[in-house]
Amino acid sequence: MNTSTDTLLQQAQQAVSQAEHILDESFWDTEAAMEHYQSALSLLEEVLQAEPQHDGALALRLDILMSMGHHYGEAGDGHRRDVEMISDSVTALWQQSRDCYERALQLYPERYADICTVYFNHLGGQGDQLFGYGQDEEAFALLEKMVGMLRPGIAWMHWATDFLYDAAILIGRHADGLAAHDPQQAFKEYHLAIAALMAVKHSSAMTDVAMSVLSMYIRAYQANTVRHADQLQEAIRVFEELGQQYPECLGEMYYNRACIAALMQQMDEAVHYLGLSHQAGALPPMEEVLADTDLAALRETPEYEDFVGYIARLG
Known about the structure:
Number of helices: 14
Distance between the termini: 81 Å
Number of strands: 0
Shape: elongated
Largest sheet: none
Strand content: under 5%
Order of helices and strands: HHHHHHHHHHHHHH
Structural class: mainly alpha
């Protein structure tokens, strides 16, 4: 390191210390702290122009961008609590937070998973708030953004996991409302929901995730049974995949598998999986089974009548 870059790096470190001191003294004095962070970034750019591979400058720049993303996001959350709404100023602070994380992703592609682990947690928290204040379209856009950014290696944190799951369920319901008059858009939304659910299939709510994924495939098929006939076969593939990876969830998935078989006119298989669902203690109440339109074709078969009679005798 030469004297010039040494001095610049020290000045950048001092600017960072000043920003951190301001935030320690008054967490919400974001604007003043950000001025010091920006000053530090400018100094680091001078260092990196002289020495593009300077390890210390590269590491500090990433730390600053991550800190700025965090504090802009926290400032937006704090302001949202103060005003009890998602105002323009809240949205602006959240956008500044995203801009910092996006810049970090652009400058440090080799750290993609690490950055996204933190970034997605902030996006998830923002998405939950958008849903909470009835801004569903904005929340769906955020979900689509996250799904489009999915890569292996991202360590899912609390807010991101909760948001992806909750958003998937809500967008599935939204698609249900579209299915009759806009099946193409409904199909797109069902698959957005599936992608979100598969991203969090490691979560503690794995049983709910597995059942929801199969349900989304069935509903995608029903949106246009001719055009999307392949969705049931894809649902079987996912059932087998999840069953192997998470055998503890099989009991809860058997009922969905029975519905898939019935929709494919595979009546013996449908009754078989209903039986497995019952044996696993996961069969829904019989009034729900009897009313389920997915099983409509099955009800005309003697096997189904035998099954219903058997359950009634157990009664």
